[in-house]
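Quick question, first post here. What does this chain look like in 3D?
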Amino acid sequence: MSLTLFQPAILLALLASSLFAVGILCIRQGLYYTDSVTGTLVSIGSTTVYYWLAAPWFFQWAEGPAVAVLIFALSGLFRPLLSANLSAAGTGRLGPTLSSTVASTGPFFGIAAGVFVLGEPLTPPLLLGAGGIVLGVGVLSWRGRTPMDWPRWALLLPMGAAALRSLAQMLTKLGLVTLPSPFMAGLSAYTVSFAFALGGWMLHQRRQGGAATSQRDLRVLTGFRWPHRLGVVWFAAAGLSNGAAIFSLNSGLQVGDLVMVSPVVATSPLFTLIFSALFYRQERFTLRVLSAVFLIVAGVVSIAVFK
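> Answer (accepted):
Ran it through. Tokens below.
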């Protein structure tokens, strides 16, 4: 039993959580100027470019077998590619409130993967802490009654997104066992994810309006029209923040168990709330919000101190 709150895995997971929150705020700003489909492609593509630009300083082929790189690449199919699409579909069907509330169950998928696949130990304080985080994030996300005008199967969309994120974390953890390179994990995953995202996006554009036939159409197709350049900048900033978050998350998985890291990373809505209150003055610290903050902080402390 560890009695220190400042474990490297916990600190790295908290850093990743805060960086994911910064990415969310950048995306929110970018959506004022650019559509979500183009913005998502720019974000994933920017992250991929950042990783390849940093590759000369971090590239480590000789540390482990090539199969580890394949595992990292496989994780890129699930996150951010498939998980982002399921999450967007869930938001479209259920609305952002209910979708984010259902997605807050993600830590339980991470714990299940860690226990049943990786054989990591599960302690009562860890399970209690994860439950506190899930409950706190759910309370933080809830905004009141939501009319039930959606099919019940739609609940599987955000839940599936949460499960795929946990699956990607589990695959990353497996790959790091034989190739302990958090950077290689992120580089491989995002390269594969961007390749598939680009292909899917081009297919979507063809279905929407056909191939580009003029300079104006080319600008529309690429999404780099001058009136929307700020959107590209914001989504590129989101890509930078998300890339750093993934590197921090992978580093946490390298030094800590998935059952510990997964619940702590799920605290990003708390950081989103804090940053929104600081920079946008749009959040009010009501009793509900304070209760959610208490549950999340207590959950992290339970995992870090008593795990």
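The CA atoms of residues 104 and 134 lie 6 Å apart.
The first helix runs from residue 8 to 30.
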